Amino acid sequence: MSDTLNATAAPASGSETGATKIGPLDSRQIQAILPHRYPFLLIDRVLEIDRKKRIVVIKNVTANEPVFAGHFPGSPIMPGVLTVEAMAQAGAVLLLTELNDREQKLVFFTGIEKARFRRPVVPGDQLRIEVDVLSWRSIAGRMGGKVFVDGKLVAEAIISCAVVDRQQNAGAVTPAGGADPNVDEG
What we know:
The protein is mainly β. The protein has a single domain (21-166), classed as Thiol Ester Dehydrase, Chain A (Roll). It has helices at 27-33, 80-96, and strands at residues 21-22, 45-50, 54-60, 105-117, 126-137, 140-149, 152-165. The chain has a 7-stranded antiparallel beta sheet, with helices on one face. The model is unreliable at 6-17 and 173-186 (pLDDT under 50).
């Protein structure tokens, strides 16, 4: 864990000692926690984690992101679903930092409620994503997320998620070098 989290970070749950605050974390440290990679890693920096309560992250929206080639040519706008996904990734970091065996886990969306988009997000914006825990269990969570640009609310949602074993999903992966055997391509 020392390779993953800032030196002031708390150990995973089960430990009797440790601070309640973690952060900041850079991209390399985030990638040690989340399985996501570019172009789908949607958080660039963790500013702070208040264990089991709150996380604050930054996402820098850049014009060279692949999504902007098609959404929309000449008028690039970050899709709202990606803004919600960034909230979910922040929540996943918050959950996974508490698990000793996080390398063996994945965090799946189980619900999105009350999603609201207040203004478009465009290249050049820096998203400040704040996610607060509404309910917490080691296998699931419900969190309220808010996204700000220049101090103004641009999006918000309540997200629910479940923590699952990676092995549980091994059968869903397309075999290397071949087509998915569950898809009839004829």
